[in-house]
Amino acid sequence: MSVASTAAYAARRAAQKERVRILYRRALKDTLNWAVHRHLFYEDASNLRERFDANKHVEDLNTIDRLIADGEANYNKWRHPDPYIVPWAPGGSKFTRNPTPPSGIEIVYNYGREDND
Amino acid sequence: MAAVGSALLKHLRLRVQVQAVPRNPSYALSFSAIRRRFFSEDVRGSFLDKSEVADRVISVVKNFQKVTPNANFQSDLGLDSLDTVEIVMALEEEFGFEIPDNEADKINSINLAVDFIASHPQAK
């Protein structure tokens, strides 16, 4: 077993912490998508938090990896088919709707006043 | 109004205590014991004023964590990394935002959050 002072151990733990944070973030957003009413969201969010906290004190690296993999599989199973995305974010409805025109192009406002030869 | 009510209450309590006297074996001892019980505040108990209770509760909650503009979530406010995630999500909802995952991990203090939101053109 690797002792807590090796760099590889620390790097692995840091990577695991990163994965856990991203997983929790996505799971929370998913819960917000699924819960129609806000009070249901609060209950589900606290249940999710308790499930994460139950495994907080696990020390063994391989167990942690397996728990994270299980959590990600669970998340994939429960993903919402139509998640809420902020309109101007990628995947939203306003994304690249009105991009800024490239420089050098200008709009000439002379509709009806052009002289057609 | 409250004073009248509490005075009435004390009077009623007096009555009940007097009727419990005959159960005691020696009258002299019981009488002085009851007199002592009447006049001790901690035995009888008194209800606190409700506004005073509210003020004290609020001051306790306010002094619990030092919420300053420079507070780091984890070291100053004593929050977990999962709590940080929750806070970032709440900020996202509040400002109508979308923060990509890799940048959301870097927000560890109030300063960073303020800078990030202020520098984003679409924060409402």
UniProtKB/TrEMBL annotation, chain A:
It is a peripheral membrane protein. It is found in: Mitochondrion inner membrane. Keywords: Acetylation, Electron transport, Membrane, Mitochondrion, Mitochondrion inner membrane, Phosphoprotein, Respiratory chain, Transport. GO terms for cellular component: mitochondrial inner membrane. It comes from the Eukaryota. GO terms for biological process: mitochondrial electron transport, NADH to ubiquinone. Its main location: mitochondrion. Pfam families: Complex1_LYR. The keyword Membrane applies. Residues 19-73 form the Complex 1 LYR protein domain. Accessory subunit of the mitochondrial membrane respiratory chain NADH dehydrogenase (Complex I), that is believed to be not involved in catalysis. Complex I functions in the transfer of electrons from NADH to the respiratory chain. The immediate electron acceptor for the enzyme is believed to be ubiquinone. Belongs to the complex I LYR family. Mammalian complex I is composed of 45 different subunits. This is NADH dehydrogenase [ubiquinone] 1 beta subcomplex subunit 9. The lineage of its organism: Eukaryota, Viridiplantae, Streptophyta, Embryophyta, Tracheophyta.
TrEMBL record, chain B:
GO terms for molecular function: acyl binding; acyl carrier activity. Pathway: Lipid metabolism; fatty acid biosynthesis. Coiled coil: none annotated. It comes from the Eukaryota. Keywords: Electron transport, Fatty acid biosynthesis, Fatty acid metabolism, Lipid biosynthesis, Lipid metabolism, Phosphopantetheine, Phosphoprotein, Respiratory chain, Transport. Residues 44-121 form the Carrier domain. One of its GO terms (cellular component) is mitochondrion. The keyword Transport applies. PANTHER family: ACYL CARRIER PROTEIN, ACYL CARRIER PROTEIN 2, MITOCHONDRIAL. Carrier of the growing fatty acid chain in fatty acid biosynthesis. May be involved in the synthesis of short and medium chain fatty acids. Accessory and non-catalytic subunit of the mitochondrial membrane respiratory chain NADH dehydrogenase (Complex I), which functions in the transfer of electrons from NADH to the respiratory chain. Complex I is composed of at least 49 different subunits. Belongs to the acyl carrier protein (ACP) family. HAMAP family: Acyl_carrier. This is Acyl carrier protein.
